[in-house]
Design a protein that fits this description.
135 residues, alpha/beta, Transcription Regulator spoIIAA, 4 helices, 41% helix
Length: 135
Amino acid sequence: MPATLTLEENGRILHYVLEDPVNVAEIRIVEQQANNLYENTPCKLHTLMDLGEVHSLPSGIFQFRGTKGLSHPNAGETVVLVASIYVQAIGETFVKLSRNSHIHFFRPQESEQAWEYLRHIIATEQASLTEYEPT
């Protein structure tokens, strides 16, 4: 299947994998899965979107600029792995249109750094939560 979504890192990271040829209907299915997770979690969900095997985006991709993954109160940082310069340029336009400063681009060979970036964000959130817990 050209679009999949799994929940990783103890339920804190939405891991999307998209591959050519992906279409808007397939993306919509995983978006709905993610929306359900945003609505039913008590904490921030961060995203790692692997577009390393995507070399062209489907027509209609900009309809997702209003997705809950960019605006929901439980939506955290988003990391996008992208190999294609074309796909990255479209992604950067997407970021500008969505007015979201929480999206970061990495190359597929930087996958481990991307995961570590998100793990660091989660660790920082957990540390700040325990800092304010009553004793």
